[in-house]
Amino acid sequence: MLVIQVCVGSSCFLRGSKNVIAEIENLIAHYQLDDIVTLKGIFCLECCSEGVTVMIGEKVFTKITSKNVVELFENEVFSALYGVK
Ligand code: FES
Fold first, then answer.
1. If you measure from the C-alpha of residue 55 to the centroid of ligand 1, how many angstroms do you get, rounded to a whole number?
2. How many domains is the chain built from?
3. CATH number of residue 34's parent domain
4. What's the rounded Cα separation, in Å, for the pair 56 and 3?
5. Using one digit for the tens of pLDDT, what is the confidence trace for 26-76?
6. What is the pTM of this model?
């Protein structure tokens, strides 16, 4: 199971983590990954000035928006799951 964690700390929340979460939920549904990808909220990852912060597995990504999360998801999630980009 691959875990995606989106920071919902106050700084990231103000920068749009709610919209990032909504987009990731859409992507998980679109690619029918519900059985192998879990989405969770997480509190401050200490990258506040660079939020929204997202963890995919053990990797941390910053400056994530509801727009650039699509490319991040398609690159990193498929890479983590299947070893391909
Ligand atoms: S609030 Fe998200 S990294 Fe600090």
1. 12
2. 1
3. 3.40.30.10
4. 6
5. 999 999 999 999 999 999 999 999 989 999 999 999 999 999 999 999 999
6. 0.94
